[in-house]
Amino acid sequence: MPYSSQFGDHFYCQTDGRLECSHVFLAGNGLPERWAEAQTFRIGELGFGTGLNFCETFRQWKLLAPESASLHFTSFELYPMAGCDIDRALAHWPQIDEERQALVARWPDACQGSITLQLADNVRLTVICGAAESTVPLMPADVDAWFLDGFAPSRNPAMWSLDLMQAVFGKTKPGGSFATYAAAGFVRRNLQAAGFTVNRSPGFAGKREMLCGTKPG
């Protein structure tokens, strides 16, 4: 179970991080159903971590998205992990072996700046290294769905600040969405203040609530 010494928190829930990804980030954003009519679908993520969310999304995309569609997954990470540590963490799930191997084989030895990896003909991953507060405002405003997966708000409040949620809102297409395992009151209020319509949904593995919502328009 990977643990961040910087934030004093685990990278994902201790029940099953892969199933949590499917429940919170994929289903919370109405995926994979929304892929059915997509030509290009863009996902933004705060917190790449081990790459688990990407690998599970990649797996489901290959199974369920139209062959003619393309996926661009952009993630923001302040402390990128070494490829060997990513490999060790994701080896826990044989369901994503193919995706893990494809990711680790292309992962650079030194992570800095913007890392772009072509994982398949129609799947591209971009990992932007650095503080999300300064890098999210520089990306194109074309995101269909956000995975808000920073460390717990109590451990890493900067990742859930009003300024950052406003930047996320500004980079979201009208009708685009977000989902997060977080349900803290200040997170909900910041998302609402940024402009999102925010809904509470049942959380994963007995967690009472999670948040998801959309950008009007």
Structure overview:
The protein is an alpha/beta fold. The protein is built from 7 helices and 10 strands. It has helices at residues 17-26, 52-64, 83-90, 97-106, 132-135, 162-170, 185-194; strands at 3-4, 9-10, 40-46, 70-77, 114-120, 123-129, 143-148, 172-180, 197-201, 210-214. The strands form 2 sheets. An 8-stranded mixed beta sheet has the order 5-6-4-3-7-8-10-9, sandwiched between helices. Helix 6 links the parallel strand 7 and strand 8. It is globular.
Topology readout:
Layout lengths: L2 E2 L4 E2 L6 H10 L13 E7 L5 H13 L5 E8 L5 H8 L6 H10 L7 E7 L2 E7 L2 H4 L7 E6 L13 H9 L1 E9 L4 H10 L2 E5 L8 E5 L3
Parallel strand pairs: 3-4, 3-7, 4-6, 7-8
Antiparallel strand pairs: 1-2, 5-6, 8-10, 9-10
Question: What is the total tally of β strands?
Answer: 10
Structural class estimated from helices and strands: alpha/beta
CATH architectural type: 3-Layer(aba) Sandwich
Unreliable spans are: none
Element-by-element helix/strand order:
EEHEHEHHEEHEHEHEE
CATH superfamily: Vaccinia Virus protein VP39
Describe the sheet with the most strands.
8 strands, mixed
Query: What would you call the quaternary organization?
Result: single chain
Indicate the overall shape: globular
Query: What is the arithmetic mean of pLDDT?
Result: 92
Which CATH C-level class is it?
Answer: Alpha Beta
Output the radius of gyration: 16 Å
Helix content: 25-40%
Our count of domains comes out at: 1
Strands in their spatial order, largest beta sheet: 5-6-4-3-7-8-10-9
Helix tally? 7
| CATH T-level fold name | Rossmann fold
Portion in strands: 25-35%
